[in-house]
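Researcher: Let's continue the batch. This sequence belongs to Rieske domain-containing protein, and it's 452 residues. Same format as the previous ones, please.
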Amino acid sequence: MWINCGQLSDFTQARYVIRLTTGKKLVLFRLPTIDPSNPKVNETNDGWSYYAMEAECPHAGGPMADSQVDIEDSAYVASCPWHAYDFNVETGESSVGIKACTFPVDVSGEFVALDFPVEDGASVGLAKVEPVSEKVKLKHARPSDSPAIVSAAAATTPKDPGMAKYLDDDATLCDWAAHVLNTANPEHKIELTTHLFAIFTAREASDSPMPLGRGTVLPPDEPPREDLQTVNPGAMPKAGRGGTLKSRIAMLHALANIELWAIDLAIDICIRFATFQTEGTSQELPRTFFHDWLKVASDEAKHFSLLRTRLEELGSGFGSLPVHHSLWISATETAYDLRARISIIALVHEARGLDVNPMTIEKFRKAGDADSVQSLEVIHNDEITHVTTGHRWLTWICAQEGTDPVQVFRSNVQKHFRGPIRGPFNEEARLQAGMDKRYYENPHIAGEVIAA
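Model: Same format as before. Here are the structure tokens for Rieske domain-containing protein:
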């Protein structure tokens, strides 16, 4: 049954979630045509191709709307953000043997139509079309914006940080990483982070990938911060339960601080451990390691921008309240061991976010703050993929070294984490990220108390 999804001219973004009246969700991709020499009904005259597939990964239900899309063997392949299962967006075929449902798309006329199978006598229609936004909410224009905008931006005030500094085309990944880490202004940091991920990804598909520059530049001991009141973690004022505007602002501000540090942590892992080699096999980290963590950093930049924007919409702003640096304390504690860094940052701190995020979201929902709920749900879904990334690379290292990732994780918690890992645990989200109960369900998982 062909379903009209709307005017072709209205589809301008890279992907959309198509909601049907049956409750079924699909993802519609709008991608540059690979081979325009033989036009098909899913391709437009101006160089765009449209594909539709089920919105949930058939492996574990991961959100394909958040998938990474690459070109392999002259075809588009979408990789699930949870476990990196890859699917051809036209055929649904995967390299791992399972198959996703795909649906024919016709854009030969003025409308976007997709063919959805129904049983005899059944009916289905379009309920809603939702664009999927991947954009970071920047406060000012990029250098590539129009000359008029750039000229106006040049007349800065004393409080205006001006434009972010971009490196030359011959800069290595480690050059960029050090530059981002040493950038104190948060708006510049998120702009440079998303730019770095974009250019690294684009060059990976070209004949001139970005040089890694392993070991050529050192990261800072601690990334600088700009105009923030820093206190010890124990001295932070209580945020409350979200029942008042003041409480919700405090909660959003605390989360924004975490996301800003999360950017630095994902960038730092790329430069600090660039020369890492596995024990026994002397295996270097593959380029996909750096791509994965740059994707995490780009997500964290998006998260910070969402929270900063929401704070401003509520009449506040980032920097209006005290912050703490406890995440970087963990980074310092694990600065000399990649296994420890992944274990503590990704599989303890970030995994804890999976446990508490639903409760935080519910507080904002009860307060009627739908806009904050929307931002927090985006963040939560992304965080599952970040824990997945940590689990994937700890597992990879352990496979190379012939060790058990669960035991390596537990050993590092004992050495490097302050206090016990406390529940309640979001077992479903943790399992989606690859962490079964062996990682955390044991009273002896408590780490030693380490003085700050």
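Researcher: Any comment?
Model: The longest strand covers residues 25-32.
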